[in-house]
Structures are given as structure tokens and as C-alpha cells.
Design a protein that fits this description.
Layout (H helix, E strand, L loop, with lengths): L2 H13 L2 E3 L4 H7 L2 E5 H5 L5 E7 L5 H12 L5 H12 L15 E7 L3 E6 L2 E6 L1 H8 L5 H12 L3 E7 L2 E9 L6 H10 L3 E5 L4 H11 L3 E3 L4 H13 L4 E5 L5 H6 L2 E5 L4 H6 L2 E3 L5 H17 L1
Parallel strand pairs: 2-9, 2-11, 9-10, 11-12, 12-13
Antiparallel strand pairs: 1-13, 3-8, 4-5, 5-6, 6-7, 7-8
Bound molecules: adenosine-5'-diphosphate and magnesium ion (MG).
The site of adenosine-5'-diphosphate has 24 residues, from helix 3, helix 5, strand 5, strand 6 and strand 7.
Protein name: Cu+-exporting ATPase
Family: Belongs to the cation transport ATPase (P-type) (TC 3.A.3) family. Type IB subfamily.
Keywords: ATP-binding, Cell membrane, Membrane, Metal-binding, Nucleotide-binding, Translocase, Transmembrane, Transmembrane helix
Length: 302
Amino acid sequence: ATPTALLVGTGRGSQLGILIRGPQVLEATRRIDTVLLDKTGTVTTGTMRVTAVLSADGEDADAVLRAAAAAESGSEHPIARAVVAAGAVGSAGTDPAGTDPATRTESFASTAGLGVQALVDGVLVLVGRPVWLRDAWAVTMPESLSTAATEAETAGRTTVAVAWEGRVRGVVVVADTVAPGAAEAVRRLQELGLDTMLLTGDAAGVANSVAAEVGIDRVTAGVRPEDKYRIVTELQAAGRTVAMVGDGVNDAAALAAADLGIAMGTGTDAAVEAADITLVRADLRAAVDAVRLSRRTLRTIR
Ligand code: ADP
Ligand code: MG
């Protein structure tokens, strides 16, 4: 391939809002046959909002939300933003969390793809996936709550459990929206002959609901960041040339390992740094434009 045509291609890319790390990236783009799509923030807008707070027997939903908001205040995750925003209002519109100067949050830590922990007024509060609470903290969900959470997930909602002092106190339900253009992008990727697969750390019910909405038929849910990475390398070992599209810290390893890493421009620095291409406007349709651009550019050269 002549360097000039590739440079023209990358220049054209930037006009389309596609930032390409270097001319050689267009070569990789042309060869891909499989596209892995992260869910939250990639296929969905990642702007979440709290729709319900379910409390365990004897627990107060407002207290659950306040504790969750305080614990999440150190996280940039879309779930955290939604919980903090809801906590600042209060589910009953009273006693706003985060604005209460008496609430002290310390020792925040997050585990990518699983949840967060923090000391809230000296009490360790955990917010995250039930499987993480169980395996890392030996805290299990009461059955009534897990039934309600599964119902919400089947309806396409994301749920996180909130626990302190050895007990799950409630579940926060958050809603996300499929990004405008995501379904069109998936259809166009498929028309270009590419296999599409949804990869998410979220629950299967949510993943299936989003996948159905955008027309993706292969779904892998409940995956940890290292599983995303492993899935990329396994597909490559099976002879696939893989593109990965993602936005999160949890996607960075998979983005770096993929033959072509594509980051959403609204994503985390870790994702953008690991990627070969950044979609400035965070519109999945630009990923399709990138594939078409590379095919066109390399055809002119041949
Ligand atoms: P995705 O793969 O769809 O981008 P993530 O890997 O970021 O999703 O998150 C997977 C799951 O991990 C979430 O659905 C949630 O249950 C849990 N999780 C991640 N970050 C947080 C957080 N800050 N607070 C609560 N739960 C979280
Ligand atoms: Mg994401």
C-alpha cells in the first residue's frame, strides 16, 4: 500500500470524526471479520438513571440509596453517576445524600466490572454485582430481592446490590437507553459481512434485551474485564480477525489485544489510549464508516 493513499485515508477519517492512530491501522480495519461490541456506553448511551430502589425486609429504601450514593461518589462508572444523581435528590425527595455534611466517605475502592466499596460514616458499604458480593465478601442476596432483580433485568434494567455489615440491604435498578444509530450500525456491519457479538459485564437478562433491540444474535454476559480479553484472544486463535468496540476501563485489555481496537470518544482515557481508532462523536455508525473507508482506501491502492 502506498503511504500517500493511507495518509489520505486517515485524513478523510478525521473529517468523518474517526481518529486513526496511524496509517497502518487502515490495513487492520480492512481485514476484520468479527466485531465485538461492549454494551454499556457503546451500544447504549451509558447515561443511566435510577428507576427504582428495592429494599430488603425491614430496610428503608432511602437509606439504601443514600449509602449507595455515598459509596459510589468516588466512581466514574455510568451506574455510579446515576446512583449519585438519584441520591442527591433522594427517592422521596428528602434528606439529600452527598449534601449532608455529616456523611463522610473514606477508603473508596473499585473493582472493574464488579463493583465499589467505601467506608461511609465508618461502615463498609458495598455496591455491585451479587456474584461479587457472594464470592469476594460472602454476602448473599435474600431470595425475594434476587427474584425482583431478575425480573427487572429481564425487562432490560441493570441492577446493583447494596450491602453493609454482612447483609444485602437493597437493590438499585437503573435504566440505560440504546444509543441512537446503534441498531442501524449493527445492521450495516452485518451487511458488510461482519459477525457481531455483544460482550458485557452486565447480567444476561439485560444483555439479551439490548441485543434483541439492536439485532445482535450472539451475546456473552456476566464477563469480567479479563474474560473480554480472553474472548478476543480465543477468537484470534480460531482464525478470526477481531475488532473490539468499547468505552470503559474494563474494555482496555480487550481493545489492546484486538486486531482493531475502537474506543468511543466519550469513553475513559484507558479505553482511548488502548485503541487504534477513536470515534469522536461516540456514534457507532462511525465504526461502520471506518470499515468502509479502509476498504475504499485500500481498493484505490491495489
Ligand atoms: P459493561 O461490560 O456493560 O460495560 P461493566 O463491566 O462496566 O459493564 O460493569 C459490569 C457490571 O459490574 C455492572 O453491570 C455492575 O453490576 C457492576 N459494576 C461495575 N461498576 C460498578 C459500579 N461503579 N457500581 C456498581 N456496580 C458496578
Ligand atoms: Mg462500557
